[in-house]
Amino acid sequence: MELKQAIMERRSVRQFTAENIARPELEQILEAGIWAPCAGNLQEWEFVCVTDPAMIGKMKVVSPGVFWKPQAIVVVCVDGTKAGEAFGARNAERWSIFDCAMAAQNMMLRAYDLGIGSCAIGSFNAVAVRELLDIPEHVRAELLLLLGRYEALPQPPPRKAEVIHWERFGNRGSGREGGST
Ligand SMILES: Cc1cc2nc3c(=O)[nH]c(=O)nc-3n(C[C@H](O)[C@H](O)[C@H](O)COP(=O)(O)O)c2cc1C
Hints:
By secondary structure, the chain is of the alpha+beta class. The chain has helices at residues 3-9, 23-34, 53-61, 80-113, 126-133, and strands at residues 45-50, 72-79, 117-121, 139-148. Residues 11-12, 14, 65, 119-123, 157 line the site of flavin mononucleotide.
């Protein structure tokens, strides 16, 4: 798949079919995560991939943002100790959240490339997820990534082109000839 197609056509999928995702496909998605850029190449992230339907059911109960049952959930976590030691208290959270976001985006694009739907979920109880999955105290669950097969992609929610500024803030006209597409 063309990169442009993956970027433009990936959608947040919230309705999944019951079709399985094979382990090698999950491995490819997780591998895309670890190849994301990250601050200082610290790789302070941890990815917990859950496929057990019973556990997914339990996670759903503590995650108001999850409506349908996916085939897998990747819990994108940060090792707070590693981040604190490397980045200092002031920057640890900021950099590690950027790093998680980059990894999550890589995984979502790779999933789409493999014909697998995904949705990032911020609305979940991190403490309950920690307890369910034996995540240690110094590791924080930042984001859930739902993965599953889908019948149809949702319509794309509209984008705001006015957030793009050329040369100076507020200049929304083109700063150069031609477009990028
Ligand atoms: C950090 C983050 C948290 C999100 N949390 C939720 C969530 O809790 N529930 C949900 O249904 N979608 C969630 N989403 C998905 C967004 O709603 C979705 O990306 C946005 O509406 C744009 O749609 P698209 O991904 O199809 O382009 C989240 C996305 C991000 C990046």
